[in-house]
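Appendix C reproduces, verbatim, an entry submitted by the partner laboratory led by Prof. M.T., so that reviewers can inspect both the input and the predicted structure.
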Amino acid sequence: MPTRVAPATLASIALSCALLAPPAATAQIDRVADPTWTTPRTSDGQPDLQGLWGNKTITPTERPDSAGGRAYLTDEEMAAANRRRVQSLRDQDAAPAQRTSAGGQLGAYGSYWLDSGDTVLSTGQTSLIVDPPDGRAPIKSWASDTKAYYLAHEGEHYQYLSTLDRCLSRGVPGSMLPAGYNNTHRIVQTPDHIVLQHEMIHDLRIIPLTDQAHIDDRIGLWMGDARAHWEDEILVVETRNFHNRGWVATSGAGRRLKGILTTGAMHVVERYERVSETTIMWTVTVDDPNVYTGPWTISIPLTAEPDYVIYEYACHEGNYAIPNILAGARMAETVATQAATQESR
């Protein structure tokens, strides 16, 4: 079984109904690909992608202003960013004790409770998004406004809370995006199916290798309806039939994408290309004309995690904490109303 996955092929994908595979970005691939690598085969002759693959990283989803418009870091900048991260984690772990001794608040979790990574992507990308060229998703204003409304009113109704908070699904491509912990994915192959087990929120995708048509357009699903096929050594997964209740990204690592809704028009194409013994390049293009002004692409190197153990992720549908969150909001409203009443007397 593979132990690591090579970074996915960098894409610059133009709008087309077929969402054709983009050409590889040499600057990205050269840092992770093994030119002598020959992908092993399964017993039925498919390229073997099986194993446990991780994608934790400190590389932001969208390109920050500090990158100066550049798509890649130099080797020196990558090393410096990694050193800063290590120091930041040390400061984070020390902060609660410092604040407590000063009589202040405890602060955030210690880093030992999390597993979000301590390095930038091995490709040196300045953002997970590689297309459009500015490294930012082209979100329409109504979608951003709706996201802001949900955030401002999340105590009013459970539907305004994240689908991750509600333990429903991180969706597609959300299930593959880095988070604060549980960033490992298991790939299993049979002659006629690809199975993807996502550690976070225990999403499981069983994808047929077939050219059969997708299900009826009127049927919408949390994870969509997926079909897979091989293009030479590359596994291509095409997913349609989403509904309008999902979020394209659910965790804080999604940054500006967190809370952006999906619609039935969303079309997702993923490409899994093994470029070395320890790396798979995962590239995903999202196209939803209802939500974005054009398609956008994320590219992430998946790294083999042969010794990792995936334990049960005991997230319960509906999440037992949701009633408490809503009850707390009602209590806050009651207190505010009582205070306003007393002031008016």
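Residues 1-24 have pLDDT under 50 and may be disordered. Additional entries are available on request from the coordinating office.
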